Amino acid sequence: MTMTSTDSGSTPKPPAKDPWDLPDVSGLVVGVLGGTGDQGRGLAYRLARAGQKVIIGSRVAERAETAAAELGNDVEGLVNAECARRSDVVIVAVPWEGHAKTLEALREELAGKLVVDCVNPLGFDKRGAYALKPEEGSAAEQAAALLPESRVTAAFHHLSAVLLQDPEVERIDTDVMVLGEARADTDLVQALAARIPGMRGVFAGRLRNAHQVESLVANLISVNRRYKAHAGLRVTDV
């Protein structure tokens, strides 16, 4: 008698999950620490414009409230701790110089949260921008070390703050490299990126690979200066 796979007791493998089958994130509240700076403000504007509930965080409540009022789209402005406490997902867009200090102060408020670090450790001299390497390896790995009870990912490094903030720009045609330890978390961040027209989130590995992603911003700054552009990235064949 010929044995079938069922007869032999084997269990058919479930079909592979479509990597572009991403979760619905429309109901999540997104907080942006450093939301009064150019990058944070631009991300807050784009996500709010796409229909996401957004809270801007700042060290000074009045600055956050002013920036939120200017952005409209029901964006709310709060002091950093309250922003972190009330958000489901928290984007870290603070200057590199204040990165560690900010996260250390918010460890309790960020516990259990999905944290998206988009900080680029860079230095500048007469020859232009160059990458810095933190002791932990990258800004994202520093965040993970400082926030042991948070789910830390890395994304949104290569976006032009000019394009993000320009209301005349309808689409931003670029890919967002997303890194993290848990696929469920990186899927959520990819889905957030996809809320912005023209943008696509692409899984790019674990946090140990974040340094080269953060460092590439120094190259993009050189591209932008040479060609008077607002360059982004596209990943081909995926």
From TrEMBL:
Pfam families: F420_oxidored (PF03807). GO terms for molecular function: coenzyme F420 binding; cupric reductase (NADH) activity; ferric-chelate reductase (NADPH) activity; NADP binding; oxidoreductase activity, acting on NAD(P)H. InterPro entries: NAD(P)-bd_dom_sf, NpdG, P5C_Rdtase_cat_N, STEAP_metalloreductase. The keyword Oxidoreductase applies. One of its GO terms (cellular component) is plasma membrane. Keywords: Oxidoreductase. One of its GO terms (biological process) is copper ion import. Residues 1-11 have a biased composition (Polar residues). NCBIfam families: npdG. This is Oxidoreductase.
